[in-house]
Design brief:
The radius of gyration is 23 Å and the shape is globular. The chain is of the alpha+beta class and 188 residues long. The chain has a five-stranded antiparallel sheet with strand order 2-1-3-5-4, covered by helices on one side. It contains nine helices and five strands; from the N terminus they run αααααααβββαββα. Helix content is 48%, strand content 9%. A hairpin with a 2-residue loop joins strand 1 and strand 2. Helix 3 packs across helix 9, helix 5 crosses helix 9 and helix 6 packs across helix 7.
C-alpha cells in the first residue's frame, strides 16, 4: 500500500498544470511577451558589464546619435570601458574582479593613476600596472597565461601593459545577449 502512495505522489508532480507553490494557482503559466524578451536582454547586458540603468541608458543615447549602426555603437561603447579592457586583456577572470583592481587603483592609464572603471579608452592609450601594485604581478601573469586577449588589444604579459591598437569590431565582440533587442527596448 505504501508503494502505491509514493507512485501516486510522483505521478501528481509530473502532471501538474500549474507552477509549484502557494501562489501557483493564481498566475498559471504565462507566455512571455515581446517587451519581456527585450527586458531580459537588457538585464543580461547590465549584468554582464556590471552597469547601472542610468549608465546603459547613457550609452544608448550616445549610440543613437552616431551615424553608424546603433547596436554596433552601443556594443563598442560598452567594450571600451576600462574594466572591460582589463577583462578582455586577460588580466582578470571576470568583470567584477577587473572592476575591483581598478577601484583599488592598481592600474594606470597613460601614466596617470585611475580608479574609475567606467572610463572610456581610446586608440593609442596605454594601460599598465602601477609601481605600488607590483605584488600582483605573479597573480596577473598567471591569470593572463590562462586567458587570451582580443585582437584590438596588444598585451605585453612580461611588462603587464595593454595598448589599444584599434576600436573593437562587431565580429570580434562575444556577448551573451542580443543587442538589437536592447535597441528596440529603448526606442519605444
Amino acid at each position: 500500500m505504501a508503494g502505491d502512495r509514493t507512485l501516486a505522489a510522483k505521478y501528481a508532480k509530473l502532471t501538474r498544470k500549474q507552477p509549484p507553490g502557494m501562489h501557483g494557482k493564481k498566475k498559471g503559466f504565462g507566455k512571455i511577451t515581446g517587451y519581456g524578451i527585450q527586458l531580459k536582454e537588457k538585464q543580461k547586458a547590465r549584468t554582464f558589464y556590471l552597469l547601472t540603468e542610468k549608465q546603459l541608458r547613457k550609452y544608448y543615447d550616445q549610440a543613437s546619435r552616431q551615424t553608424t549602426s546603433t547596436a554596433t555603437a552601443l556594443l563598442t561603447a560598452m567594450e571600451r570601458r576600462l574594466d572591460n579592457v582589463i577583462y578582455r586583456a586577460g588580466f582578470a577572470d571576470s568583470h567584477s574582479s577587473a572592476r575591483q583592481f581598478i577601484n583599488h587603483a592598481h592600474f594606470s592609464l597613460n601614466g596617470h593613476k585611475v580608479n574609475i572603471p567606467s572610463l572610456q579608452v581610446h586608440v593609442g592609450d596605454e594601460i599598465a600596472i602601477r609601481g605600488r601594485s607590483q605584488k600582483l604581478t605573479d597573480f596577473l601573469t598567471e591569470t593572463a597565461k590562462g586567458n587570451h586577449a582580443v585582437s584590438w588589444l596588444k598585451v605585453d604579459p612580461s611588462k603587464l601593459t595593454v595598448s589599444i591598437t584599434s576600436l573593437p569590431v562587431r565580429e570580434e565582440i562575444e556577448v551573451p545577449f542580443n543587442e538589437q533587442l536592447i535597441i528596440e527596448f529603448y526606442s519605444r
